[in-house]
Amino acid sequence: MSNSDKKALVLLNMGGPDSLDAIEPFLYNLFADRDLIQLPAGALLQKPFAKMISHFRAKKVEVNYRVIGGKSPLLEWTQKQAAAIAEQLGENYRPYVAMRYWMPRADEVVKKIALDGIRDCVVLSMYPHYTGATTGSSIKDFKRAVARHAPELNCSYIEEWYDWPGYLDALAGRIEAAIDNVHDMLHNELQIVFSAHALPQKFIDRGDPYLDHVKATVDGVMQRVGDYPYHLGFQSRSGPVKWMEPETTEVMDDLAKEGCRTLLMVPISFVSDHIETLHEIDIEYRDHAINAGIHNFYRAPSLNVDPIFITAMADLVRNRTEQR
Where in the sequence numbering do the catalytic residues fall? Predict the structure, then answer.
């Protein structure tokens, strides 16, 4: 089979610093994107503010990255996901990964696809829940790269899959795996907390579907998991804007006041491990919970390359491409 008969499978994700030196420029790229965060001083001052914020935040963030190995594992996991999904799709698919805020960037990836002689491309956002801040920004970025470097490339885009049955099955399976690690005597007091990445509140106010998508995922997963009390919070706030509520730590505090002593944390908007799971949840939230009196803290394993998840994504690509 010639390359012109192959399809590119491109997974889009946020990206993360691949070294300690990359932290500040990565943060700058993130804060400079007005699709993600609109700093209050306006578009003209976005980049100067982004430069200042990233400089001061980098020192704190560096400490966290040192604890998890000195870099983000997000690229490695996304590459493994792309390879595994493409393998299930068959030999006519070739995997690629494009990151929004760090390497490999969309321009580089589109050039590589064109150089490889591929004419057709399926672009899969690895954010299950659509928001203009993540999927919207990443797809706009990829389309700009296509227009610049390979306007002849025929692309189809998969922008959301928050209610895809295979995804819900995979996430439920991760939760059930975590519950299996909870002592039988603690099951009756177990509380589940889904933790989604927060968005600036103005995104929701203007009609962004992210919150509705997250809630639909939680409902679909809990229909599969069974009769446990569950809650939803939002994590990873950064920048001087109003964010979605309640914050995940506030949910934990309220549960602790009500006497909760056993908690299972479920990262809901992340499909692979990175700084928000490995440090924010596994270290910061665990410490917060224990200090609040929640002595039994568990976290559902991330999807990463879980076989059920990989099969679900391959089925999703087949389904969406056949529809088109």
Answer: 14, 30, 36, 100-101, 197, 273, 276, 280
- Map residue 259 onto helix, strand or coil: coil
Residue 162: CA atoms inside 13 Å, Cβ hemisphere, count?
21
| Mean pLDDT in consecutive groups of 10 residues from the start of the chain, 324 residues | 83 98 97 82 82 93 98 98 98 98 98 98 98 96 98 98 98 98 95 96 95 98 96 87 93 98 96 98 98 98 98 98 81
Query: CA-CA distance, 142 to 144, in Å (whole number)?
Result: 5
According to CATH, the topology of domain 3-16+72-160 is Rossmann fold (3.40.50)
Q: Is 171:256 a contact under the CB 8 Å cutoff? A: no
Q: Which CATH class is domain 165-299?
A: alpha beta
**Which amino acid type is present at position 304?**
N
In whole angstroms, give the CA distance from residue 324 to residue 315. Answer: 14
Alpha helices in 226-278 (DSSP H): 248-257, 275
Do 3-16+72-160 and 165-299 agree at the fold level? yes
